[in-house]
Amino acid sequence: MRLGNVNWYYLLFTFFFTVATYNYMRLFQIRSYSGEHGFNQKFWFKQRVVQASFFTVVFSLIGSWFYLKIASWTLVMLSILPGLISLLYPLSFRNPMQSFTSLRTIPGLKVFLIASSWAYITFLIPVIYWYDIQPLDWVEFGMRVFLIIALIIPFDIRDLQMDDSQLRTLPQVLGVHRSKLLAMVLLGLYLVWKFIQHFLGCLTPEMLVAWTLGLMYAAVLIYKMNVSSSEIRSSFWIEGTPVLVVVLELLFSQLYY
Questions:
Q1: pLDDT tens digits, one per residue of 30-57
Q2: pLDDT tens, 158-210?
């Protein structure tokens, strides 16, 4: 893909602000955390508020430094929407009608907001800012949304017993089995898209093999996922699939040449 030459400042900005934003959201939702369902990452945050707040500030400052290195009015305008979503997502307020209290409580919206924001920040912004966007880029954006939804589903399966029923997550609506099937179908669609990109000359053989192995690996882990699975399986091993793909692609590139 063309993003092989993406600006390192933007890459590092994305990394540090992703960590900072994740911590920010956890800190705002900290009141609802308890050890009722065993020791988990959320409860860990509640026990270490000061440390988590400190690292959130530090990572935000480091991310801001990298952002300022490449900042322009165009990049600022492109960043406003995901910035507002990240800022408002964990906030809630009292509503007498109880039809809307926060973005994350709107039924079915949570997974779409997360997936589209990830795809927008990691793909669409760099393409628009550093390249001329092409029709196939919009297809890649849509496919990335599907991929991220597939990787989020195991996280929602693990949190099924802890999430409020009003969230209407996919496992709450479809059940665990159907949600896992949906995730594997979405992974399959993304793999088909990768083969199409390869035949169009947009994807190297090394990247195709890396994506094939990475998606197969994710599918196996998702198939074995259930509500009692460890948090590290959903939060690290499955959601870390794109990182695994990058590592495999670099490895295969070295072996090939």
A1: 655 555 545 455 555 566 667 777 888 8
A2: 777 666 666 677 888 888 889 899 999 999 999 999 999 999 988 888 889 89
| pTM score | 0.81
Q: Report d(CA 2, CA 6) in Å as an integer.
A: 8
Which tokens belong to 31? 């009141």
Rounded-to-integer distance, Cα 239 and Cα 148, Å: 8
String of DSSP letters for the chain = -GGGG--HHHHHHHHHHHHHHHHHHHHHTGGG--STT-S-HHHHHHHTHHHHHHHHHHHHHHHHHHHHHH--HHHHHHHHHHHHHHHHTT-----TT-S-S-GGGSTTHHHHHHHHHHHIIIIIHHHHHHS---HHHHHHHHHHHHHHHHHHHHHHHHTTTTS-GGG--HHHHH-HHHHHHHHHHHHHHHHHHHHHHHHTTSS-HHHHHHHHHHHHHHHHHHHT--TTS-HHIIIIIITTHHHHHHHHHHHHHHHH-
Residues with Cβ within 8 Å of 121's Cβ and at least 6 positions away in sequence, in order, are 14, 82
| Nearest residue to 103 (alpha-carbon basis) of 87, 118, 115, 119 | 87
Task: Go through 213-230 and write b for each residue having 16 or more CB atoms within 10 A of its CB, e for each that does not.
Answer: ebbebbbebbeebeeebe
